[in-house]
Write a structure and sequence with these properties.
Helix content: 10-25%
Distance between the termini: 24 Å
Number of strands: 14
Biased composition (Polar residues): 29-38
Order of helices and strands: EHHEEEEEEEEHHEEEHHEE
Region (Disordered): 17-41
């Protein structure tokens, strides 16, 4: 597989005397940047990544920006934002075939990095544009910074089906599934202004927000997909097991290096309950700064139901 190493940002020339571009005087012990978290996994912050970049640029001679990008991508040294949501919801083919289960925080915006847990029963808000000094946020301008998305999904269907029993316990002919779509907040969210982000925006779909009067400041969302698919399409995220009422936990990983796969691999994706064309990486590569990922629980045709219980979405981006 050939990696796409095209540079998609404008480079700001490095100046060793410009402390706003590189916080060299406050560089910590480099070994402190490599200490694992209590979970055994190191999750670097934006500041960590900028400091590591500065170390590369302080070499004699400095490493080219493009080479630093490649190195950091190869070791997956990216910032991340994880949003976890847990509440029971049901999409019913008759009454509510599509339920917007959650929306992530805007991609690569200051104040969104780290781990967040939201609940409909506990309203709260976070401040975007806060945290790391803005002078250190614009070392690069990246239009498409997303590198990886990890979905963790807990759900099940109605637990029965009139279809042949050979389909039960498989992902075949299942009309209860998860989908993901992308939305762009309006007005555009940037790192240059402080913005309030109430938890209402995590749980409320775009059409309901248009009629809402209690969102301050007012935020609307431009939906890249204006209508929901009438049946599960080739880009679907994850199906439920057919006629299995017990909750299943699925993990789906999408990467910016994923490419279109062979017909054999497409069948393998279908065997895992995923869309045959969902693994081509286009969703990840097309996300722009400030975009949000929306997770949908869907069901189609009489008798089918989608019971969503919990979801966790981790988004990783290059700095």
């Amino acid at each position: 597989m050939v990696r796409n190493t095209n540079v998609d940002r404008r480079v700001v020339k490095y100046n060793s005397t410009n402390s706003s571009a590189c916080p060299a005087p406050q560089l910590p012990n480099p070994t402190s940047l490599l200490q694992p978290s209590p979970t055994g996994r190191h999750e670097p912050t934006v500041r960590d990544i900028l400091v590591v970049r500065c170390y590369f640029l302080l070499c004699k001679p400095p490493l080219p920006y493009e080479l630093v990008d490649i190195i950091l991508d190869e070791v997956c040294y990216w910032a991340h934002s994880t949003v976890t949501v847990k509440y029971p919801a049901c999409a019913d083919s008759w009454y509510s075939p599509d339920h917007m289960y959650m929306r992530t925080l805007p991609l690569a915006i200051p104040g969104t990095e780290g781990d967040f847990v939201f609940s409909p029963q506990e309203p709260k808000e976070i401040r975007l544009g806060a945290g790391l000094e803005r002078s250190n946020l614009s070392l690069y301008h990246r239009l498409h910074p997303c590198r990886r998305i990890v979905f963790e999904l807990w759900s099940h269907d109605q637990g029965w089906s009139s279809n042949p029993s050979r389909l039960h316990g498989t992902y075949r002919e299942t009309f209860s599934w998860w989908d993901a779509s992308a939305e762009a907040p309006q007005p555009v969210i940037t790192g240059n202004t402080d913005t309030s982000w109430p938890s209402l925006l995590v749980f409320t779909d775009a059409k309901r927000l248009e009629a809402a009067q209690d969102v301050e400041p007012p935020v609307q969302f431009y939906q890249n997909e204006q209508t929901r698919p009438s049946i599960p399409n080739d880009k679907l995220l994850q199906r439920n097991l057919h006629a299995v009422y017990k909750t299943s936990h699925h993990t789906v990983k999408w990467s910016h290096t994923d490419e279109a796969v062979s017909a054999e691999d497409q069948h393998a994706l279908e065997d895992l309950g995923r869309g045959r064309l969902s693994g081509d990486g286009s969703f990840v590569r097309n996300l722009k700064v400030g975009d949000c990922i929306v997770l949908w629980a869907s069901a189609r045709f009489p008798g089918w139901q989608m019971y969503a219980e919990k979801a966790k979405i981790s988004v990783y981006w290059a700095v």
